[in-house]
Amino acid sequence: MWAKLKRQIWRWRGVLITVPSITGGLLILGLTGALQFMELVALDQMFRLRPFEPPDPRIVLVTVDESDIKQLRQWPMSDAVLSRLISLLKQQQPRVIGLDIFRDLPVEPGHQELVNVFKSTPNLIGIEKVIKTAQGEVIQPSPILKQRGQVSASDLLLDADGRIRRSLLYLRTQDNQSILTLGTKLAFAYLEGEGITRQPVNSNQNQFRLGRAVFTSLQPNDGGYIGVDNGGYQILSNFPRFRNGFRTISITDVLKGRMPRHFVRDRIVIIGLIAESVEDRFFTSYTTNSIAAPAGVQVHALLTSQLLSAAEYGRPLLHVWSEPLEWLWIILWSIIGSVIGWTSVSPQRTASGVIFFGIALLISAYVLFLAGWWLVIILPLLALVGSAITSNGYLMWENLKEYARTLEQKVEERTLRLKQEIVERKQAQETLSQQKQLLQTIVDNIPVMITLHDRQGRVEFVNRQLGQILGWSTTDLNNIDLIAESCFDKEQRQQVLDHMLAATGTWLDVKIRTKDDNFVNTSWANVQFCDRLFVGIGQDITERLDAALRERKLAEQSSILEERNRMAREIHDTLAQAFTGILLHVGAASELIGKNPDAVQVHMETVDELARTGLAEARRSVAALRPQLLEEGNLYNALNRLTSQMKSSTDIHLHCEVIGTAYPLSPNVENNLLRIGQEALTNAIKYANAHEICIELVYEHKQCLLRVKDDGQGFEIDNISFRGFGLLGMSERTERIGGELIINTQPTQGTEVVVIVNRE
What we know:
kinase; transferase; protein dimerization activity; Beta-Lactamase; 5-stranded antiparallel sheet; alpha/beta
């Protein structure tokens, strides 16, 4: 167990060393406050990335800008103007009015009128400055309002960089009295009308409940702050982000009666200055330039809106983790960085991991910020980066030492290997020499001609076979330029050179002049050996050409014989069939010549038609054209017409029918099927002694069938002779169209001839 634990400790030694050292150093650095400004800047950036919120309809600002001061023609405004302003606002019955204008001294005329208005307005809240200025001064409130308890503090808290990130809820006056700030007092007064009051949570008064929110006072080291002055009751500012700010109306519009009806009814009204000349501008986390900096009255309104939304709607306040949790947060990212650096095989992998987890850190901090938690970012980010760099550097140092240790071993091994390689190289040279001799023997004795030539056609190497065929010795061939020495016909020289340089590997037949001035028929293929040299491979094809010539003569003789057979079949299928029909009709006419002249005339007309058809078929056979019957219609019509011609010359009942939907076949198939049907029909009439003959043309989806059936005497299938042109012709025609010939017959059972061909 202990040994296994030691192995694990040694395996992760880089992480175990890096995390305490980096985390400890950063915590010490953070406690000095050196990183406070960076944490606050990071907090500001998260505020600026926050999405916009809808405007707060509960608050209305009555503002005084430069144009209003010009209209009033004096500043501060007189008590008469202020009393009239408050009276006009009171007419719409606002819930509470905040006066963010100091009124410690009377400004005549109209002071008594203002005192009367103050006395008659219990929901009016004035201000005083409690925290001393740089000159050690404070600003007193209006005596009437102070006497009536309608006073609040106007003080705002600024960080070292002049930004407002903390908000005062209440503080102590010089006489040790507790006083609420203006934004807080206005919010509390509004919430009292909603039945929401402040409820203490603990005895030390650092927590209280207001509606749906629990407030906790800021501690000196909360969040990114280090040793901050947390006097009074402070909270972290979590001001809402409005696109267009609060609903606003100028003091001039109110005094001139241009305020819309019910504009301030049951709302919080805050009267204050926004004029540039008064210099009452403050920077918040949202502020990026002095032009967009809000005035003091707007900052008080933001605090009021924050408190109202938290109490009524549960909008998150900005909370922080305790210091132990923040330390664990920093340690976690230090561990992640150390693991990345210790397990990465290269600095690039380390950088990629740091970037990925750094983005994850920022995203998680931002998501928690939107939920109301301020987590420190800079310290964990530095812990992530620093730990990754340190652990990866330590790993590289360990690897470098290991590399140095193995380098010496590799040098020794390499020295031994070199000695072995020298021995192996000598053996390889001997083997190469033997292989070279073997290759030379093969090249010299291989039964093909081999040349090695350059781009100009100059031959640099030839084998013995080429010398034997051309009649030159090897010494002569090594120095000869085959192209320049006129070894080829003049017409072939350029063709041969182009073929040699193309090096496509295709064969070219050429005649080469031998040393004794004869020509040898050869065939050459050329391939590229390297950038400069080409290899030529040649064969003596004299015997092959002679054999080809003999084969050509045999083919011509076979072609002539095939053509004769074709003509014989055509004559048999056309002229012979026509003559047979003529003879049948002449015989029939002879029997009826004295008995029925009209029938004789019909037979003679059929003889005339058969003679003319036979003559046309003879001419078409010579020209190798389609039969006349097919020229005038499709295959079924041709068979039907053929049947009609045969009916008049015999007493046998003949009929032709088609089964299925007819579709066209290729001309060659239709031609052969017609001839086969014609031959089968003629044979049945002449030899079957049948009473009925039926021709069927069957069109199926994938094949076509021609069927000729008779009820005649039939015959023994084994005694069929194919030597005549009839059955032999049908068999050859069927084979020519890729079909199948089937003959079904038995003595006294009739005969059926079937031809089956594929549709395609």
